[in-house]
Design a protein that fits this description.
By secondary structure, this protein is of the alpha+beta class. It has one domain (25-107): Arc Repressor Mutant, subunit A (Orthogonal Bundle). Helices cover 41% and strands 16% of the residues. It contains three helices and three strands, in the order αβααββ. The protein has helices at 21-47, 52-59, 63-75, and strands at 49-50, 79-87, 93-99. The radius of gyration is 17 Å and the shape is globular. The relative contact order is 0.16. Residues 7-12 and 109-116 have low confidence and may be disordered.
């Protein structure tokens, strides 16, 4: 029988109070990534589809925060490229993204915890 952990991780912070600061920093990145995913989903619900730049503007986020999360949302089935492109600020073609087959984070195949 497994012993009961006297200092279990806080389900809201994903780190124990006794964990080193690096664990707390990693848990904060995880929380920030989830918040960013939700902000992107909300923006796509409003605008319907857009490039990462357009989604970032609609969500009030930086471009880099959006392009880092779109692959996560794609893996989860929450967002997907439309197959179309539009020229962005950089004068390069950018994929246009829309909500995927399941517009809820719980539909995915797991949780990608990349840096925010």
């Amino acid at each position: 029988m497994a012993a009961i952990d006297p200092d279990p991780p806080d389900p809201h912070t994903h780190a124990r109070s006794s964990d080193p600061h690096t664990s707390h920093a990693a848990a904060a990145r995880l929380q920030r990534a989830v918040v960013h995913r939700l902000m992107i989903m909300d923006a796509l619900k409003v605008i319907g589809s857009g490039t990462f730049e357009e989604i970032a503007e609609a969500a009030g986020m930086r471009d880099s925060q959006v392009w880092r999360r779109l692959p996560d949302l794609h893996d989860l089935g929450v967002a997907m490229p439309t197959g179309k492109e539009r020229i962005g600020k950089s004068r390069r073609a950018q994929r246009i993204w829309t909500l995927g087959r399941c517009p809820h984070l719980h539909c995915g195949r797991g949780d990608k915890d990349a840096d925010a």
